[in-house]
């Protein structure tokens, strides 16, 4: 397809683009553009899908296809690495007054110029984590031309919480160190659950684990009987000077935390060291937290590399393990320094967390 562009009617950025080819102002240039386009609308090349051992799940694969000079006539999936049942196939961005259907050979009931395919597969609860689904989604035009979109995702056995945690402890104010008793300097997580009818007896309900939830807590909240089992880290800010401080994750059962809270934070409660979780941390480095697979999640050697206090570096992920065997990963996303003119403020650390429900 040839498209004529008059330079006076377009942006400065386009003038620069065409000028790179030696064209002078007020000249015409022909640009080739393929009218047949098809692509996955997934934000990541290899996203992760959590397997819930209690309930069946699903994954939507969304493909955009358009050919305004011809049509979209067929949709097929081939070379699937694992066989997953198809829950549904929907056709979006088409005239609902004339619905589109598909036959067993992938032929559409009518040709369309633009369509979004919403292809949903079932993830059975018995599926094993660590597997990868890949497949080729083939879009065929009315004239028989094909576009092949390779799509995939990793099946993982951990849950990722949606909440972005904001944690802080300690700052420099008016050239003095200041730690607050109300600082949200503890990180917690717990399982989430839901009730559903029992498959074998719908008249009765059962509770199933659906994921994890996370929160931050100040010292008074963290030490309650209800919250102690949930606490998996204390954030300690080691302030060296007006311009230098270091943030650490610390196991909640470390004895010196009680003195730190009493002396620095002016916390007047009794810190129950013996009742707090023993946790070990391993620095996994700058892994891709959002798309980490089970191998990334499980590669930490806590026996060899586990530490009760670990220095934080922005962009790194930190595996953790409690004494009762719960494991997870904390992603230290970034740190924000609130800095008024008179001083450097409190470093606020932002975390994402993933964990198993075991």
UniProtKB/TrEMBL annotation:
Q: Which domain of life is it from?
A: Bacteria
Its name, as the record gives it, is: DUF1735 domain-containing protein
Protein source organism: Sphingobacterium faecale
């Amino acid at each position: 397809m040839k498209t004529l562009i008059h330079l006076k009617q377009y942006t400065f950025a386009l003038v620069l683009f065409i000028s790179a080819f030696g064209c002078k102002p007020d000249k015409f240039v022909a640009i080739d553009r393929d009218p047949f386009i098809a692509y996955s609308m997934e934000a990541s090349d290899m996203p992760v899908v959590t397997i819930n051992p209690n309930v069946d799940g699903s994954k939507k694969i969304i493909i955009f296809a358009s050919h305004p000079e011809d049509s979209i006539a067929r949709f097929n999936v081939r070379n699937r690495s694992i066989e997953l049942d198809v829950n549904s196939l929907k056709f979006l961005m088409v005239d609902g007054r004339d619905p589109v259907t598909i036959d067993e050979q992938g032929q559409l009931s009518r040709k369309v110029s633009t369509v979004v395919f919403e292809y949903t597969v079932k993830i059975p609860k018995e599926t094993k984590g660590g597997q990868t689904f890949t497949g080729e989604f083939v879009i065929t035009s009315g004239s028989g031309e094909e576009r092949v979109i390779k799509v995939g995702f990793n099946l993982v056995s951990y849950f990722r919480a949606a909440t972005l945690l904001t944690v802080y402890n300690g700052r420099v104010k008016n050239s003095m160190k200041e730690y607050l008793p109300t600082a949200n300097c503890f990180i917690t997580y717990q399982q989430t659950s839901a009730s559903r009818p029992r498959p074998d007896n719908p008249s009765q309900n059962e509770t199933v684990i659906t994921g994890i939830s996370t929160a931050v807590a100040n010292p008074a909240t963290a030490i309650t009987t209800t919250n102690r089992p949930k606490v998996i880290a204390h954030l300690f800010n080691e302030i060296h000077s007006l311009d230098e401080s270091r943030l650490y994750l610390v196991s909640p059962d470390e004895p010196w935390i009680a003195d730190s809270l009493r002396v620095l934070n002016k916390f007047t409660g009794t810190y129950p060291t013996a009742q707090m979780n023993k946790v070990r941390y391993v620095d996994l480095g700058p892994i891709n937290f959002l798309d980490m697979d089970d191998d990334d999640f499980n590669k930490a050697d806590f026996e060899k590399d586990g530490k009760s206090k670990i220095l934080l570096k922005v962009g790194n992920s930190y595996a953790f393990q409690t004494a009762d065997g719960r494991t997870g990963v904390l992603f230290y996303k970034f740190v924000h320094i609130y800095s008024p003119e008179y001083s450097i403020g409190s470093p606020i650390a932002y975390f994402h967390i993933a964990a198993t429900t075991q």
